[in-house]
Every structure is written in structure tokens, then in C-alpha cells.
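Lab notebook page, bench 4
Experiment: in silico fold of construct C2
Operator: M.H.
Input chain length: 224 residues
Purpose: comparison with the prior construct
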Amino acid sequence: MKFTISHFKQWFFPVNSTITRASLFGRAVFLLALLFWGAPLLTYSMRHLSDEERSVSFFEAIIGNADYIIHEAGHPLFGLFQIQMLGVMGGTLMQWLVPLGLLFAFRIRNKDAFASAIMLWWFGQSLLHSAPYINDARMQQLTLLGVGTSRDFDITHDWGYILGHLGLLRKDVWIAHYVLLSARCVMVLAFLWAALALVSQYRRFKPAFVKDEDKLIRDLTRDP
């Protein structure tokens, strides 16, 4: 089937009749807040992300804790398959698959482009959160589980194990660099998608706004 611009618009900007003017305004406020709190993440270097003593904003702490909980839940969940590699990868897989799963759920089930874009941003943020741990695969100096490094407490370092078994341990810094770059690109694209989704939804209300304004002008100019 030939893919046209019409198909592109239909997939990324589907018609959703459940969006109200009030919810549209709320979404615009939410996007501005996300830009204010989330845009600085795009500027963080690998060294900054790896600095465990850096100050963390309230927003970053909330989303970071959510990532942490989902990540840790992924290990026992994928561990049910009784494949060690899958169990170790399960944390990161879960952390990435949850926002991606919600993205497709919002798009396919709810036809909600804006919510899908926010989930895409979350996926980008999850990639960003993973980058410093990939970068630490050889050195293993980052604190894990809030108790210490993997070397101090004989804790399995996810990415040390994964890259080691794949024969890619010496490329950890290189892989982390491109994961970080990909994360930034995904987050920027998500911001753009969310903004365009709002514009698309606003245009569907615009005729009603114009009609109301015309009626108001006629009422005001009508002879008493």
C-alpha cells in the first residue's frame, strides 16, 4: 500500500472527538511545564548524568524514581523465563517497553496523539537514564540499588553483564554515547509531536471559536 502524506497525518494526528476545549488548555499548560522542567535534560552531558552528587530537580526525582521502580520490577518478571541473560536485561527492557507500550495504547486505542507524544518523551528520558549505566559497564563505579557499587557488594551490573556476554564491553562508552544522542533526538521529536498535536486539535475547534466570536459581534452591534 502506498504511504501518502494523508496516511502520515492520519497516523500522527488522528481525529479525537473526546478532546474538549478545557482539556486542550490543560494539555497546553502541561506541555509548557514539561518543556520548563524537561528541556534542561537535553543539555546534560554524560559526566553530569554520571555525577551522583549533582542536584536533582523535583521533577527529575519523580520520573527517575518511576524509572527505577519499573526497572527493578522487570528483573523478576523477565526472570520467570529462567534465562539469565533475559533476567538481567529485563530491568532495562521493562524500563523501555512500558512507555513504548503506553504510546501505542494511547495512539491505537484512544487515538490520542498528544498522550502518545508524551509517552515518546518518556521513552527518550528512559534512554537518557540508561546511558550513564551503559557508560559505567567496565568501570562499575556507580551506586546500584542505593547501597554501593557492584564491585563493593558483588551485585550484578546489568550492562557489565550484558555487554560482557555480547563481547561489546570495550565499546561501552561508544554505545552509551549513541544511546544518549538517540535519547536527545527522541525527546526533541516528542516535544515537536506534542506541540503539533495541540495545534492540530486547536484547529478543529477554531471554526467554533470563530462562529462564537461572529455571534458575539452581531449581538453587540444589533440595534436595541
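Observations: DSSP finds nine helices and no strands in the chain. Residues 172-221 form the longest helix (50 residues).
Next step: discuss at group meeting.
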